[in-house]
Amino acid sequence: MLLPVVPLWAERGGSGAFGSGATTAVLMATTVATQLAVPWMLVRFGHRWVLAAGCALLGAPTPFLALSADLAPVLLLSALRGVGFGLATVAGSALVAELVPREQHGRAAGRYGLAVGLPQLVLLAAGVALVERVGFTAVFVAAGVAPVLGALLVPAIRMSGGPVVVAAGTRARPTARAALAPVLAMLTCSIAQGGLITFLPLAVPGAGLLVPMALLTTAAGSLLGRLVAGELVDRRGWGGRLLVPGMLLSAAGMIAEVAALGTGTGALVVAGSTAVGFGFGMVQNDSLTVLFAAFGSAGYGAASAVWNIAFDAGTGAGALGLGAVADPFGYPAAFGTAAGLLLVGVVVAWARPGAAVGRS
């Protein structure tokens, strides 16, 4: 809910596109820094404790955003929330692999995507709309309470035999070729969607329900893409084969956004956001299952960390990097840059056919 709202709050405090994008970039920077340590924490403390701590840290600082729209305190609170986000994301996606057999990873990842995507489907668009009706403070309080309540549900998770412990000295050794394509696909797609979510409310101001509708459709597209990919990976054995189509679809969506801003066509805004979401959803599911296969059962936590780091680093880079493009050149140039990066990713992935794992 807060990904498009906090940049609006920072802009209210006088920040430009670069400062507004920095709120997302700082959130993701501390998220990624935290994620580097989470595989060790999962072994040391267990999945449930790490997940609960992440939920609490993600939610508790959030209401304090309402105290000031100045950039410095907003960045500080975003950084603190990023620590919680880093803990929660890696622990959550690692549980996908720990709780089900390997042959069900695709569908399990799809169901995990459903759990993440359904709230996003409603709240990504609702955040901007709610701010206009009830104000920032109410949105910040609601977004802070929900993760704390979520932490109370963590004890219901039942790990068979307790947390998985990796033997001392055991280290996953995924090949670079197996990891390259999924990591690159995640990075480029998350740059595109991170930039879209951060800047679409700023690029199309005063558009009524158009921006909330576009944010709704990108969340819905991502959810559907993950579910479809999960079925294709498990039932058809298409692990690793959905990365290039997903990047191409996301690139087409960003190109549609450029055209929409140039022509003022609302339908293109919605169509483009849907394509970005669906393509990224395919990439999210397929890349996660490929990385699980590449790292092996001893490295599920590390695979989860790599996947989440690519996701969140790309989101932060999209917010900060595309903001740096948007400030001097405008939002169409920023969205076009994202499309270009996706097409570069497609070329690299095609040039490295061995990067995909045949079946997860």
TrEMBL record:
Looking up PROSITE patterns in the UniProt record yields: MFS (PS50850)
Transmembrane annotation, as ranges: 20-42, 49-69, 75-100, 112-131, 137-157, 178-203, 209-229, 241-260, 266-283, 290-309, 329-351
Give the record's keywords alphabetically: Membrane, Transmembrane, Transmembrane helix
UniProt-listed InterPro entries: MFS, MFS_dom, MFS_Exporter, MFS_trans_sf
Q: Where in the cell is it found?
A: Cell membrane
Q: Does the keyword Membrane apply?
A: yes
Key word Membrane present: yes
Q: Major facilitator superfamily (MFS) profile domain spans which residues?
A: 1-357
Coiled-coil region list: none
Its chief place of residence is: membrane
Q: What membrane topology does the annotation report for this chain?
A: Multi-pass membrane protein
* Protein name according to UniProt: MFS transporter
| Species in which this protein is naturally found | Pseudonocardia zijingensis
